[in-house]
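Hi X.,

You mentioned you wanted examples for the new student's onboarding notes, showing what a folding record looks like when two proteins sit in one file. Here is a clean example. The first protein comes first, with its sequence line followed by its structure tokens.
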Amino acid sequence: MTETFSPSASPLGCTNLKLRQFMRRVTQHYDVQLAKVGLKTTQYSLLSYIAKLGPIGQTELASHIKMGTSTLSRNLKPLVDAQWVVVSAGNDARSRLVSLTEAGRLKRAEAQRRWRVAQDDIQRMLGTDKVAQLHDLIDSSMALLEPLADEASGE
């Protein structure tokens, strides 16, 4: 018997609470795997974004990952302290460039193997179709909620 979704059904409960509960459960699983290589999920994500986009301006990186610049600075600090990331002067006195060091590339590669275990576990538990539907729902919902991001940034 397959589950069906009735679009006319009224959602029960708080959407924020349900999303936070779901995210906590998923994040805990990824954190358990990544802790085996000494990283948190947020740190692995940052290393991955920097590997893909870097060297990249700190403001541009914050925009890509939908994070405030001060939060990004706080999250970069332990990566800089571990010498996995370097923040250097940008094109002008106010800009900063973020890039991975060789040690950062190695740490990301090590963590990527643990991330893959977590990813495969979630996909196995939820099923490939449900994960694909979840990704589609998140992507389309993020696009619909873009006006809230503009509102929050004061635009």
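Then the second protein repeats the pattern, sequence line and then tokens:
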Amino acid sequence: MGKVVMYGSVSVDGFIADDSDDPGPLFDWLTSGDVALDDSGVLKVKQASHDYIRPYWDEIGVTIAGRHVFDLTDGWDGTPPSGIDHVVVVSHRPPPEGWNPDLPFQFVERVEAAVARAKELAGDRTVEITAGDVGGQALAGGLVDEVRMDVVPVVFGAGKRFFGTLDAHHLLEDPDLVVQGERVLHLRYPVRRETN
């Protein structure tokens, strides 16, 4: 089985968007370089960011997102982002009316069920969970193996938190990888497992 990774771009004070769901400059680093990150021609980063992000993206088989992210992106127009094979959406609501059930999207009601289904679909590839409430719930449930953050030098002061609304402490290991890009710092933290 592949690992489960919580991932997202984040302000230095821990936010993934403001209160209106606007990520502001959090994704500017994805379009400010000269090295293509994908075939779209839109995403261009500096070489250090490319060398960190591209191999990670290539190992992702499934992304888990909450219904809020799904709705904000209009379901990525039915195509999973960045060449990912499947998206599992955590939602208590059914798919949107008229949604094509043959698209590589599945809707489940609980985070635990989403991770289990995503692992089945991903096989030995990585399962990525978006930052925010769904990612925070997965971390709190002991379902996350690694936390990856693209820290952008901006302070929001308020907004949507990277870890959602966690109500307890969760220890991460020291970062096992730190990559300085331009206007972004890429961090990778293994999640500390409690031993009995």
